[in-house]
């Protein structure tokens, strides 16, 4: 099989690596253009580009996917399948090129958790199970006919980063299995059921990552886990007329009760009152400081109880 791959982040690299080391012919790779990032606007290369350069793969970086030159390059490569993992939405002129279809890997059991952040939202919503899906791309986002799925359980306390790594590894195997399935005169894909009330996975932003302390300790804890390691659940602290961003990356449930938003130190542990039992904050970050365990944080912020949560 002649495979063309499209992807950008580390999640996609695991799949690319699996295809590269398979018996299939990897005819090319497309990834995002280099962009300035961080302090000093240093030019940042995608994880997929770094891997492709290291292994001397045929790398393309189209700025626009409808660009005539890029489309012609793709057609000349004559891929049997295009595999897409964590990339941009493809125009029809691209996803219709391969004779056997364009396949996407999605980090949920579709049709639930369509969208940009399925791993995060599965944990934020307290799901006990999630999974991965391969499907044929069509004109809408994450709506195409399903090829294969694999369920994955979510243990209590699992972070988005941990689930990401699990699904990344399983996803690489599922994509290879999908390629083998399609190569054998496949016609068994199943249309997604849109009649159900679906759970979605919208892009993370400043609003939906903010902690609502009026929620239960259980809900707030899931938010912190679902946004760990990035971007982090956040709140605002006030002290001496100064506002500070404050992030919570991990927390534990407790049987203590304090007023909502009240910060309390007990036995070298930091608690916050919620709508129910208090939440013990175990890994946090003050604006301008590094992320740290709470017992280390309290050595320099023993007066944290004098701060107000807004």
Question: Can you walk me through this structure?
Answer:
The chain has helices at residues 10-20, 47-54, 68-77, 92-95, 118-124, 160-183, 217-226, 294-300; strands at residues 2-7, 25-30, 35-37, 42-44, 59-60, 81-85, 102-106, 114-115, 129-136, 146-153, 200-201, 233-239, 242-253, 263-266, 269-272, 279-286, 292-293, 308-309. The chain has 310 residues and is of the alpha/beta class. The protein folds into two domains: 2-200, 3-Layer(aba) Sandwich (Rossmann fold), CATH 3.40.50.170; 217-309, Roll (Methionyl-tRNA Fmet Formyltransferase, Chain A, domain 2). The protein has a seven-stranded mixed β-sheet, sandwiched between helices. Strands 12, 13, 14, 15, 16, 17 and 18 form a seven-stranded antiparallel β-sheet that branches. It has a two-stranded antiparallel sheet with strand order 3-4. Helix 1 (10-20) links the parallel strand 1 and strand 2 (25-30). Helix 1 (10-20) runs parallel beside helix 6 and helix 5 runs antiparallel to helix 7 (217-226). It is elongated and about 65 Å long. The model has no long low-confidence stretch (mean pLDDT 96).
Give the topology, please:
Blueprint: E1 2-7, H1 10-20, E2 25-30, E3 35-37, E4 42-44, H2 47-54, E5 59-60, H3 68-77, E6 81-85, H4 92-95, E7 102-106, E8 114-115, H5 118-124, E9 129-136, E10 146-153, H6 160-183, E11 200-201, H7 217-226, E12 233-239, E13 242-253, E14 263-266, E15 269-272, E16 279-286, E17 292-293, H8 294-300, E18 308-309
Parallel strand pairs: 1-2, 1-6, 2-5, 6-7, 8-11
Antiparallel strand pairs: 3-4, 7-9, 9-10, 12-13, 12-18, 13-16, 14-15, 15-16, 16-17
